[in-house]
Design a protein that fits this description.
The complex is a heterodimer of chains A (118) and B (132).
Chain A: E1 5-8, E2 11-15, H1 22-39, E3 43-47, H2 56-72, E4 75-79, H3 83-92, E5 100-102, H4 105-114
Parallel strand pairs in A: 2-3, 3-4, 4-5
Antiparallel strand pairs in A: 1-2
Chain B: E1 4-9, H1 13-28, H2 33-53, E2 57-66, E3 69-78, H3 86-89, H4 103-110, E4 113-119, E5 123-131
Antiparallel strand pairs in B: 1-2, 2-3, 3-5, 4-5
Classes of the chains: A alpha/beta (118), B alpha+beta (132).
Chain lengths: 118, 132
């Protein structure tokens, strides 16, 4: 299933509302990079509020999205990671240290605004 | 009725199916949200391992009663190539697929009990239990 990517000024917004399978995660990676290229968006917020689990594969794809977007010059903020998901990820040994995070979508947009992306 | 489901892992979509079966079982057994996340994540890792390395296989999710304890047991059984060096497979960061290598050692940390039995050429059985 394709995850919609919305454009808001110089930002792209993604809210993952489906049970994320491997193919959809990889499709999102490709679609998002293409959209960054098309729109020259300076920042991306990926909202993960609806995800009740993130396994090592999805975590790897998210980490890759952060690195790849960074290479293109676009800053990614991951928002809304649930308490249970944060606990499970750290127990798995996954820290996503290179990723910018924020409590919610609003704060994520704010962080990008403060770093000059609007 | 006792909860038991058996999900054959023959395609990538079955990873999601196994995860959903685990989530449903954990909810029915009244596990908290954190344990539900641990259980679904563990199943996802085990199912993906079967999909990547050892198809065909099965994920069995069932409730168990033992010495007044109540728990959820995950069995991941495959007829794949088997694991030559189990000790290495249980090390953090060890991967042959370019992944994070967090899968198997991660499952051990997420669950309360963990055992792995593998024979080269025959297959692997991983059993993991979360007590309520």
């Amino acid at each position: 299933m394709r995850i919609p990517i919305l454009k808001l000024n110089n930002l792209l917004l993604v809210s993952i509302q489906i049970e994320l399978d491997d193919q959809s995660a990889l499709q999102l990676q490709e679609d998002l990079l293409e959209k960054i290229h098309q729109t020259s968006a300076g920042g991306v917020v990926i909202d993960l509020t609806s995800l009740d689990m993130i396994d090592s594969f999805i975590a790897k794809v998210l980490g890759d999205i952060v690195s790849m977007s960074g290479l293109m010059g676009s800053k990614v903020v991951l928002t809304g990671i649930q308490p249970a998901v944060a606990i499970t990820l750290v127990e798995l040994g996954i820290y996503l240290n290179d990723a910018n995070t924020a409590i919610d979508l609003e704060k994520g947009i704010e962080i990008l605004g403060k770093s000059g992306v609007q | 009725m006792t909860i038991k489901s058996n999900i054959p892992i023959i395609s990538e979509w079955d990873i999601v199916a196994a995860r959903q079966a685990g989530r449903e079982a954990a909810k029915k057994m009244n596990f908290g949200t954190v344990d539900q996340a641990r259980i679904t994540t563990a199943i996802s890792e085990l199912a993906r391992n079967i999909f990547l390395y050892a198809m065909p296989g099965n994920i069995i999710v069932e409730e168990i009663h033992e010495n007044n304890k109540y728990g959820l047991k995950i069995t991941a059984a495959d007829q794949g190539p088997g694991i030559e060096n189990i000790k290495l497979a249980l090390e953090d960061g060890y991967t042959t697929s370019g992944g994070l290598g967090a899968g198997v050692p991660g499952v051990k940390r997420l669950m309360d009990e963990f055992s792995i039995d593998s024979e080269v050429g025959r297959g692997t059985v991983v059993v993991a239990v979360k007590w309520l």
